[in-house]
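ARCHIVE CARD
Drawer: 12
Card no.: 0347
Subject: one protein chain, sequence and derived structure
Cross-reference: see card 0346
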Amino acid sequence: MSEHVKSFAAVDLGASSGRVMVGRVGPESLELTEAHRFPNRPVRVPEGLRWDILSLYAGVLDGLRAAGQVDSVGIDSWAVDYGLLNADGALLGNPVHYRDARTEGVAEKVWATVPAAELYAATGLQYAPFNTLYQLTAARSTAQLAAAERLLLVPDLLAYWLTGVAGTEITNASTTQLIDPRTRDWSHDLADRLGIDLTLFAPLRQPGDPAGLLLPRVLEETGLRGPVPVTTVGSHDTASAVAAVPAAGQRFAYICTGTWSLAGLELERPVLTEASRAANFTNELGLDGTVRYLRNIMGLWLLQECVREWGQPDLGELLRAAAEVPALRSVVDAGDATFLAPGRMPDRITDACRESGQPVPESRAEITRCILDSLALAHRRAIREAEALADHPVDVVHIVGGGTRNELLCQLTADACGLPVVAGPAEAAALGNVLVQARAHGLVGDRTSMRRLLARTQPLRRYEPRGDAAAWRAAQDRLTRG
C-alpha cells in the first residue's frame, strides 16, 4: 500500500446490525469495503429489554480480525444507552435498551424538579422518553446503579474493552441531556438539582482525540500487529453520518435515514428558544464545534417492523407495489410515540388511519405506501420548521444512510419538500468515522475538504421534485386536524 494511503477500521453499530468497515484513504481517494457484518439482537429477559453487548463485542473482534492490519480503529453507535462498571472495571449487567419500558412516566418526575422549558434552555435536547437523563432517574433506586463507579456510553464501553482507557466522547455525551450545548461541557447545576453524579462519567473526549492502543490480548485475538491506536470519532452514529454529508456550502438540510430519520441542519450555534422546544427540535453536538439541529422521526423502523410481522417478504417487490398505490390516501404522524415499541406495527398503522377518519390501508402495498408518504411528509415538516426556527434557508436536501437505497422514499421526500434531493452515501456513518480517523492521521483537511472528497469518490443520485405541491400541503393539513 502506498505510504500516502492508510487503512482505517470503522466499527459502526446500528440498532439492528453491526458492521466493521475498512476505509482506505489517500489525498484523492476514499474506498470503503465491508469486512464483517453481524446481527444486533436485543434480548427480553424478566427484568426488561437488554442489549446483548457481549455478542456485539464478539462481532467487533471478529470484524477486526477480518479487517486485517489497519492504521487505526474508530467506533460509533446509537446514542443514549450505557453500561455500568464496578470499582474493578467489570460490567454490571447488560445495558438497558432505550425501548425498555422503565422510563415510562419518568419525565414528569424530572419536570417536577426542573420544568421542561428550563431543561430545554439548559441543554437544548428535545424530549424523548429514553434520554440518558430519564434512564438514570429511572435507575436511581437500583442496586446496580448504587454499585457503579463508572458509566460508559455504548461506543465508549467497547473502546474501553479494546484499550483499557475510559473516556466519554462529546457528540454522544450531548444526547444524555446533561451537556450545555453553548459551553460543550457538563451542566453541573442541572445534574446537582436532579441528583445525578457526574463523576460516574469518564473525562470528555473530542473527535480526533487518541483513545488508547489495542491491548495485547486484543491484538492476540484479532491477529493484528501492534501498536494499533483507537481514535475517537463522532461516536454518535448521526454525528459521523452528518460529517459524511457531501454538501457544498451551508444552505443544505440533511436526513440521516435508517431505523430512525434524523432530519435537520448543521449550525454554528444552538437554538434554545421556547418555539424550538415546542417544535421538539434537538441541539446535539457535531464535529468541529457545530450543532446538529434536528428532529427525531420514527424512520424506517415502521416499515422494518411491518416486514418482520409479514414474515420478511421481498422488499423490492413490496416497494414496487407500493409505488403503484395512489399517493397520500392516508398518512400518519411518523413521530408519534404510539409507534415506538415493537410489535403489531401493521395493526397500529391501520388503527391510526381509522381513528383519524382516513381510508384504512388494507394490503401490504397500501400500508407500505402509507408509511413512506408519512415519512416524506415528516421530513418536509421537519426541514421547513428547522429553516424557520433557525433562520437558515435551504436549497438542497441530502439523504444519507440506509434509506438512500429506497428510491421511492427519496423521490417522495423531494416531492414533499419541493427541493432537490441528493441521495448518498449509504454507509455515511462508517465513512464519517473513517474520515475523522484519516484527518487525525494527517490525510484529510477540514470539513469542507472531507465533503469534497466524498462528493468526488462516492456514488450519489439526484432526485428532482415533481407532482403537486398542494397535495402535500393538504395532507399535512389533514394530519394536523386529525
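Annotation on reverse: The chain is about 40% helix and 20% strand. The radius of gyration is 22 Å.
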